[in-house]
Amino acid sequence: MQTLIESALLSIQTKNNLQTDELIKEKIPNSLKELNIIKNDKNIEVLGKTAQGGRSFVPWVAIMNKDITFNPNTRQTTVQRGYYLVLLFAKDGSSVHLSLNQGITNINEIRKTYNKNYKENIKFETITQNYSNLLCSMLNHNNNKFQIGKIDLKVSEKNSTGYKYQFSNIISIKYEINKVPNEIQIENDINDLLTAYNKLINIVPDHDKFIKENIHVVKQMEHQSKLIKKISDLDKTIYDAEKIETKNTFKPTYINTTNTNTKSKNITSDEDLKKTLENQQIIGDLAEEIALEYYKNKVREKFGEEYAEQVINITKTSNNPKEKSGHGYGYDLVAFDLDKSMPTEIYIEVKGTKNTSQSSSFEITDNELNMLLKFKEKIRITRVLGVGSKNPKVVEIGGFENYHSKEDLLTNKFNIKPTSYRIFGVKSE
């Protein structure tokens, strides 16, 4: 088998099509059929192909379970449906992947239907790779020799099947030309992947059903990956904050009310609302990280490392083992007053936004208002402006000792606009 695979890679590199056809369609399949694990299983079919779709189509030799890959329309086994084990040869003959792969025809059909019905634009590459990742997670394997996710078959022509096979890989092992292992190692690798293949068949016996039932799951996986990318992009600059002078944006003539007769011109879908809330959560979490690092650095400079270590995010950890971490305290950080000559503990409620203007709005809860009145001169609202930018700014708002009720705060400290109502009772008619 080692010699046959090396010869196939070399014939692909030298564009010896006749030899490639002979090796892929006859010699390698016949050699695989002689392996005991395959020879003793009457439900396995071995098939090799080279020329479909022109020479941009990668040569392959598939090991297929007849039940899983059977096409009732053609009455034949096919790599277009189900799962199968396959040797996928790179277009340039540089390597071959022994891959546990899946049929892509139904995935593409489901994708097109979903995009049409939900007015989405999910890419083939994204949805196929997410299905592969989902199947891989079901295997729950711990073998480090397996490659997970996209493989490189050196195919860039998007309309070719060879290009698409790169994204439908579930797990695989790569052999490079002139580095193909010996017969024993190849047979061990095939045994390992056939074991994974049979396990997957037991877990998910109907690939078509699996594709249909999990379309919303893989769509959510796409959304999560985008959120992770946003977090990754924003993380690069979370420690670059500087404090700027607090600007007076209060307007004494502003009427703190809302017009119940005004009709909203914007209609937000549930999905868009969900995305907005998730994005706000990301920005809020990053703002807390920026503020935490800002106060740690400033406290370290003024009062030393001992006090810098006491600057904490109370929503993530608690010094009191009887208390739980999390939101609900009415503030986020415990820090020290940088305007005092001696370390004096203060509490920080963090408000983050990507906007860079102090005139931009922010939300405040009833509990947070209660904490402003309770702690007065010992609490601050720290706004982090420009979250995700290269130069986020920190604005510290204090002076709450001058106010004695929520009505006082909402009338004389803040300009407000109610955006929602909590209903406690309903009159029957």
What does this structure look like?
The chain contains 13 helices and 14 strands. The protein has a 6-stranded antiparallel β-sheet. The radius of gyration is 31 Å and the shape is elongated. A hairpin with a 4-residue loop joins strand 3 and strand 4 (76-77). The chain has helices at 2-13, 17-33, 36-39, 105-118, 124-139, 161-165, 183-203, 207-213, 215-235, 270-303, 305-308, 366-375, 406-412, and strands at 44-49, 60-65, 70-71, 76-77, 83-89, 95-102, 147-148, 171-176, 242-243, 312-313, 333-336, 345-353, 379-385, 393-397. Helix 1 runs antiparallel to helix 2, helix 5 (124-139) crosses helix 9 (215-235) and helix 9 packs parallel to helix 10 (270-303). It has 429 residues and is an alpha+beta fold. The longest helix has 34 residues, at 270-303. The protein has 2 domains: 2-226, BirA Bifunctional Protein, domain 2 (2-Layer Sandwich); 238-412, no CATH class.
